[in-house]
Automatic annotation (TrEMBL):
<protein>
    <submittedName>
        <fullName>Uncharacterized protein</fullName>
    </submittedName>
</protein>
<feature type="signal peptide">
    <location>
        <begin position="1"/>
        <end position="21"/>
    </location>
</feature>
<keyword id="KW-0732">Signal</keyword>
<keyword id="KW-0964">Secreted</keyword>
<keyword id="KW-0443">Lipid metabolism</keyword>
<dbReference type="InterPro" id="IPR036514">
    <property type="entry name" value="SGNH_hydro_sf"/>
</dbReference>
<dbReference type="InterPro" id="IPR051238">
    <property type="entry name" value="GDSL_esterase/lipase"/>
</dbReference>
<keyword id="KW-0378">Hydrolase</keyword>
<keyword id="KW-0442">Lipid degradation</keyword>
<dbReference type="InterPro" id="IPR035669">
    <property type="entry name" value="SGNH_plant_lipase-like"/>
</dbReference>
<dbReference type="InterPro" id="IPR001087">
    <property type="entry name" value="GDSL"/>
</dbReference>
<dbReference type="Pfam" id="PF00657">
    <property type="entry name" value="Lipase_GDSL"/>
</dbReference>
<comment type="similarity">
    <text>Belongs to the 'GDSL' lipolytic enzyme family.</text>
</comment>
């Protein structure tokens, strides 16, 4: 018994060590995917390790992050797999390497790259007080670096086909609220702009980056809406007498952004009809349904993080060696800012095969077979 246990522990330690030393992306290769590659631009909701290499307070490469994976902590801000990992699984696509890992470790980039960086936003200044982060602007430049690398392995004709058959996933904007507009002590944006003007500024900048990615050859875009940020433990724990209820004024700001993002999708689809597709992933609606009717989705706790400290475990986010809750699948929120793997699974499934109220105007399984 004793020696079996030792072998068992040694086996898992090896798996954990090798998984965190190498990049998870190499662990799984598949040719079933309808997309030649996937390219991910975003923040901590989709960062899979880029911030591990940066000097930043926004990091998740320590336990208990990754507690429900065989990988252990990888820099993913979750107890388990994240939205992009799960979407890759639904599609039969290999997991993506982080951009920084592709540069430092020479990982194969053929299946795509994840450029996302925790604390980053649409505006360059967003998240600055947390240290280094790769802004949306820099993420677009890093994509150009990847293209230059790909040019060494294929001719221009093949490259443009390859990019046209790739999926771009963009998840940006949360930090422009959480780590900018809503921090009036650190940022002047809320003094300079009312929420409507601010949403206009964000979308204008966002559109510029989307068009840059389009100019570089991407044709299939999944643009994620912002979730109900007024409901995350970080927000509901703020103020003098927090009740645990969602902050409606924050959700209203987010809705101004989301409405404009959906209009942008309509505008771009009309402009590039037949040659490109832009879809709006309605994370706000999906999360609101879960928060308003948790039991229907198998959840119990909606207004308290699984890992964290203070009111609603949302005042200080999950720290190294914190002891998280044990029933993680029943929590909507893993930490003060990020949903649990169980929620990301629902979001990924809805993105892959949801109806138009979840993802508009078509879902990812439809995008996969277009053009
Ligand atoms: C990367 O992987 C692809 C498919 O698995 C292969 O065709 C290609 O040669 C590899 N590229 C490099 C540079 O190793
Ligand atoms: C690129 O396209 C040519 C035809 O134009 C084809 O013969 C070749 O195999 C392709 N190369 C790669 C790396 O896909
Ligand atoms: C694209 O063009 C088709 C055919 O002309 C039309 O039916 C469809 O409504 C157009 N889609 C958009 C988003 O404009
Ligand atoms: C996608 O959704 C449709 C409609 O709800 C359902 O019939 C189908 O089985 C689903 N497909 C997958 C692969 O989940
Ligand atoms: C997702 O799109 C596919 C392909 O068009 C469709 O068959 C399926 O019904 C859609 N899923 C839902 C839930 O509407």
């Amino acid at each position: 018994m004793g020696s079996l246990l030792t072998v068992w522990i040694a086996f898992w330690s090896l798996i954990l060590i090798s998984a965190s030393a190498n990049d998870v992306s190499t662990a799984r290769q598949s040719s079933l995917s309808p997309f030649s590659a996937m390219f991910v631009f975003g923040d901590s909701l989709v960062d899979n390790g880029n911030n591990n290499y940066l000097t930043s307070f926004a990091k998740a490469n320590f336990v208990p992050y990754g507690i429900d994976t065989s990988w252990g902590p990888t820099g993913r801000f979750s107890n388990g797999k994240m939205l992009v990992d799960l979407l890759c699984e639904f599609l039969g696509h290999p997991y993506l390497p982080s951009f920084v890992a592709t540069q430092k470790q020479g990982i194969n980039i053929t299946g795509g790259v994840n450029y996302a960086s925790a604390a980053a936003g649409i505006l360059d200044e967003t998240g600055r007080y947390l240290g280094q982060r790769i802004t949306f602007n820099e993420q677009v430049q890093n994509f150009q670096t990847t293209i230059n690398q790909l040019k060494a392995t294929m001719n221009d004709m093949n490259l443009s086909q390859y990019l046209a058959k790739s999926l771009a996933l963009v998840n940006h904007g949360s930090n422009d609220y959480l780590n900018n507009y809503l921090l009036s002590g650190l940022y002047s944006s809320s003094f300079l702009y009312d929420p409507t003007a601010y949403a206009d500024i964000l979308i204008k900048q966002y559109k510029t980056y989307i068009l840059s990615l389009h100019d570089l050859g991407l044709r299939k875009f999944l643009l994620a809406a912002l979730g109900p940020l007024g409901c995350i433990p970080n927000q509901i724990s703020r103020g003098f007498f927090p009740t645990g209820a969602c902050k409606d004024e924050v959700n209203a700001m987010v809705t101004l952004f989301n409405d404009r993002l959906k209009s942008l999708v309509d505008e771009l689809n009309a402009q590039y009809n037949g040659s490109s597709i832009f879809v709006y992933g309605n994370a706000f609606a999906v999360l609101m349904q879960i928060i308003q009717d948790p039991i229907a989705y198998g959840f119990v706790t909606t207004n308290r993080a699984c890992c964290g400290i203070g009111r609603f475990r949302g005042m200080i986010s999950c720290l190294p060696y914190s002891i998280p809750c044990s029933n993680r699948d029943q929590y909507v929120f893993w930490d003060a800012f990020h949903p649990s793997e169980a929620v990301d699974k629902i979001l990924a499934l809805k993105a892959f095969n949801g109806s138009t109220s979840d993802i508009y105007p078509v879902n990812v399984s439809q995008i996969a077979i277009m053009f």
